Amino acid sequence: MTDKSATLNVEGTDHSFEVRSGSVGPDVVDISRLYAETGKFTYDPGFTSTASCESKITFIDGDEGVLLHRGYPIDQLAEHGDFLETCYLLLYGDLPTKVQKEDFDFRVTHHTMVHEQMNRFFTGFRRDAHPMAIMCGVVGALSAFYHDSTDISDEHQRMVASLRMIAKMPTIAAMAYKYSIGQPFVYPKNDLDYASNFLRMCFAVPCEEYQVNPVLARAMDRIFILHADHEQNASTSTVRLAGSSGANPFACIAAGIACLWGPAHGGANEAALNMLAEIGSADRIPEFVARAKDKDDPFRLMGFGHRVYKNYDPRAKIMQKTTHEVLGELGIKDDPMLEVAMELEQMALTDEYFIEKKLYPNIDFYSGITLKALGFPTNMFTVLFALARTVGWIAQWKEMIEDPGQKIGRPRQLYTGEVQRDYVPLSKR
Ligand code: SDX
User: Fold this and answer.
1) Pocket residues: Cβ below 6 A from ligand 1
2) Where are the active-site residues found (predicted)?
3) Given a cut of 80, is residue 163 above it in pLDDT?
């Protein structure tokens, strides 16, 4: 027992539990023996005070608005690196050397095609299917095509599956978009970088050459970096829980996509833009802010608030800067939604309710404006979030699988239903 411990008195008996410290951030009280010793569970719906695992990948300081990936601040990674460098960092734990980066980029680039028969999946969907519904189905089906990389006990297969997903998500996302607008799929090109390849697969048409705008490609790449990983958020926890049963990595990522879709999580970028469109003009902001504060109104300001950040989401600041760069490059001067967003942000940041509840803009607040300016429809916004977050899900899944202490996740409950009672025959009911 370390010299740091916590004592819990349960029905007159003291029970001592080890307190463990990380390299930074809150200590944890190891209560894994609590039930064995006291016959009692902890109760923490939403896991507001629960550490589900030990991890070395991402650290968030919600009070200070800090986000580190393997120790590197998100603003430095977004400023100086590219998305595949961040992928390497998340997967391997260190920034790549020049040779390692070239090798990793080559391997990812040469896995971007999908099995030709996957095209047939898309024709089974209605054209108006939400692209996230398509992503859930097609990504889950990857295990049907790449069965040679589903043995999670094999380190080589784990890395192959990881690379395949990082490489193929842009292709599948672009196919989902193309299918939804009735245009032919565009194959990846190996002489383009990751973000440029994705933009071309989304926006090129067979009738003419597509020229990638380097400013927009850089902005897309930076948006991927900002969404890459975020500690034990809902979708990452979903991937970890799915993976804890030994499910194959493709199925685990499909589970993460399904969870991310929710408007309280990754679906907030689509919901935030729809909200800005509904507000329409700055003079209607007070009406919506009042609704957000009204306990009887389920309406919330989408793109505001966060379970962990009780300060400005550091990604939102970089996102806001990227928004202005993209609008500037595209010559969009007075985007009405940007005006509403900036006015709404100012109003919320000075409103007592938002100050007291520590509600700040999160990454989803500005991302929608940028993605719309880049040419994406709102129903593609969460697809782009899932594309970028795949590397985070994979890195966290690998860390969990490679943890020697790993076991299947199986929470308990506080049961408040009927106690045992005897069956009543139908004739007597
Ligand atoms: C993402 O976890 C992650 O890391 C997620 C993410 C990632 O990268 O993976 O960062 C990505 O999901 C960002 C969040 C995107 N979601 C939204 O923007 C949707 C709007 N935000 C809310 O739904 C909410 O803020 C959450 C879900 C994000 C956080 O909810 P919590 O932590 O459970 O907080 P809460 O619901 O308990 O809110 C605390 C209080 C409540 O009031 P009281 O009950 O205490 O009186 O603040 C209020 C809430 O009513 N509140 C809001 C609000 N968010 C919280 N009131 C108005 N508008 C909001 N947006």
Assistant:
1) 230, 233, 264-266, 268, 292, 300-308, 357, 359, 362-364
2) 306, 364
3) yes
Task: Give whole-number Cα distances, 153 to 157, 161, 249, 254, 323, in Å.
Answer: 8, 12, 11, 20, 43
Largest CA distance in the chain: 79
Asked whether residue 23 is domain-assigned, the answer is yes
CA angle, corner 201, sides to 197 and 206, nearest 5? 125
Q: Is residue 42 situated within a structural domain?
A: yes
According to the model, what pLDDT value does residue 2 have?
52
- 94 burial level (CB within 10 Å; 0-12, 13-18, 19+): exposed
Domain residues for the domain of 12 are: 3-50
Q: Which long-range contacts (CB under 8 A, 24 or more apart) does 65-70 make?
A: 65/309, 65/311, 65/312, 65/313, 65/314, 66/314, 67/230, 67/314, 67/315, 69/228, 69/229, 70/94
Which protein residue's CA is at the shortest distance from atom 27 of ligand 1? Answer: 264
Domain count, the chain: 1
SS (H, E, C) 41-104: CCCCHHHCCCCCCCCCCEEEECCCCEEEECCEEHHHHHHHCCHHHHHHHHHHCCCCCHHHHHHH
Task: For Cα atoms 244, 414, 298, give the angle at the middle one, nearest 5 degrees.
Answer: 90
C-alpha span between 311 and 155 (Å, rounded)? 39
Which CATH number characterizes residue 31's domain? Answer: 2.20.28.60
Taking the C-alpha atoms of residue 153 and residue 75, their distance in angstroms, rounded to an integer, is 35
Is 235 part of a structural domain of the chain? no
Among 1-5, 195-199, 385-389, where is mean pLDDT lowest? 1-5
Residue 405 within any structural domain of the chain: no
What's the mean pLDDT in 147-175?
92
Report helix angle 381-401 to 363-374, nearest 10.
Answer: 130
pTM score, whole prediction: 0.94
Q: Point out the ligand 1 atom lying closest to the alpha carbon of residue 260.
A: 12
Cα 291 to Cα 300: distance, rounded to the nearest angstrom: 8
> Which of 353, 355, 362, 393 should be mutated for ligand 1, with most atoms under 8 A from CB?
362
What is the per-residue pLDDT for 147? 82
Query: Could you give the residue numbers annotated as active site?
Result: 306, 364
